[in-house]
Amino acid sequence: MQRIAMLGSGFIGRFYAESLQGYRSRDKIVSIYSRREESSKKFAEDYKVNHHTTNMEESIAHPDVDIVCIALPNNLHEEAVMLCCKHKKAVMTTKPLGRNAAEAKRMLEAVESAGIFNGYLEDLVYTPKFIKAHESVKNGALGRILWAKSRETHPGPHSEWFWNIEQAGGGCILDLGCHCVEIARSYIGKDIKPIEVMCWADTQVKPIDAEDHSIALVKYENGAIGQFEVSWTFRGGLDLRDEVMGTEGTIWINNFLRTGFEMFTTGIGADYVAEKAESNTGWLFPVGDELNELGYNHMFMDMFNSLENGSSPKETFYDGYIVNSVLDACYRSAKSKQWEPVQLDIWRGKEGISKDSHLIEYDNDHYLIKEEVTHYGAKKVILKNKQTGRIFEKEVG
Ligand SMILES: NC(=O)c1ccc[n+]([C@@H]2O[C@H](COP(=O)([O-])OP(=O)(O)OC[C@H]3O[C@@H](n4cnc5c(N)ncnc54)[C@H](O)[C@@H]3O)[C@@H](O)[C@H]2O)c1
Q: Whose CA is nearest to atom 10 of ligand 1?
């Protein structure tokens, strides 16, 4: 059993609480910190939490607390993490880890030198669909991974601090790109170094200082390419889609908007449909079990199993730091309009690997370009002579 201090009683704090306690779980939130007395009290009532406070340190230091779950606005992550280090409490932090790589690096170094458990709550690499797809990728079902694309777009966040560039640290690149980068990175291989990025970003709709729409390419050292599409201007709900393509196959995942659950209502008895759904009448796309489909259950299971086994979870502060470093390069690229290198002061994966070869051996003298079976029944191969470079085709049995 883990006894948890929840920091933050807002949108994600409540999603986490539902996941932690909603399934007859043996884990329990024992302290809730929130900025305002009435919200900490209400959260404590709703989730039967014994201790509530408006003092962050008091919650972290509470003697009943084994692990702290940080569900606070981005500008407060570092302060909360440093207090966990001070009180030697295991810590899990929501995404993004920091507002930038410098903050993330300070947090990573602090938890490691304090010797405390650290987990990065990147739920979207724990969705049932991601877990299944990732297994197939790891088993080689798609061959060598060439391209991994992730898209998260919705009509914009639900609280004022997200829209304040100082508190949030950025716009949709930071808020949504952090998910997409980690999804693509996981498919391509977390030990493969992201080396440079090209990013377009603009403020197209909202009267804010940060970007509300962005598209980026992230190049990896083995030649694979990651891609993200993120927006706070998309109309029609929460669009969460991933695509991964390899030399032997492809996977397309639709996580949220079109999951095979479709419903029509005139609006009578209208109710909550799904996160960021813009309508509750007409044709709707509800989500069966958001907690599970967004990965929260599998994520906390990994966190607590790892904590109890003395091992590292799949996602740690190190991963959060890598993600922040990629996103920092995106911001530089959006400004410079150039490919920008990803600056990694800390890197624990493979070093100096060369781009994977694109040459497929056919026989001693030829490379294979393609095998073809035509509509009129002919079977042929298209080959390239290794010496002369000549490309030709020949019919085969
Ligand atoms: N899928 C996900 O993993 C996911 C989804 C949403 C949000 N988040 C992350 O969770 C964190 C919190 O986001 P949220 O959506 O719960 O926000 P929210 O505004 O709904 O809740 C924020 C909570 O922090 C508390 N708080 C303390 N000091 C505050 C201050 N100075 N200003 C504002 N709030 C303060 C508020 O009382 C509230 O309980 C962010 O880092 C966000 O990026 C993650």
A: 71
Same domain, 237 and 93: no
Do residues 129 and 86 share a domain? no
- Indicate the pairing of strand 213-220 with strand 194-202: antiparallel
Least confident interval from 40-54, 55-69, 350-364: 350-364
Cα 161 to ligand 1 centroid, rounded to whole Å: 8
Whether 210 is in a domain gets the answer yes
Q: For 95-185, where are the E strands, in sequence order?
A: 118-121, 145-153
Q: Is the C-beta atom of 159 inside 6 A of ligand 1?
A: yes
Q: How many CB atoms sit inside 10 A of residue 374's CB? A: 9
* Average pLDDT taken over every residue of the chain: 96
21 alpha carbon – ligand 1 mean position (Å):
19
Q: State the residue range of the domain holding 374.
A: 366-395
With tokens 């990629």, the residue in question is 326
Stretch among 11-20, 293-302, 352-361 having the lowest mean pLDDT:
352-361
pLDDT tens string 130-181:
999 999 999 999 999 999 999 999 999 999 999 999 999 999 999 999 999 9
Q: Stretch 266-279: mean pLDDT, rounded?
A: 88
For residue 72, how far is its CA from the centre of ligand 1 (angstroms)?
Answer: 4
Which residue among 72, 159, 172, 296 has the greatest number of ligand 1 atoms within 8 angstroms of its CB, and so is best to mutate? 72
Domain boundary among 92, 122, 152: 122
Name the CA dihedral angle for 257, 263, 264, 269, rounded to a multiple of 10 degrees.
-100
What's the pLDDT at 22? 86
- Do the Cβ atoms of 373 and 379 come closer than 8 Å? yes
Are 210 and 320 found together in one domain? yes
> Of 122, 143, 175, at which residue does a domain stop?
122
Is pLDDT above 90 for 272?
no
Into how many domains does the chain fold?
3
Put simply, whether the predicted model's pTM sits higher than 0.85 gets the answer yes
What gap in Å lies between CA 339 and CA 195, rounded to an integer? 10
Q: Which DSSP letter does residue 160 get?
A: G
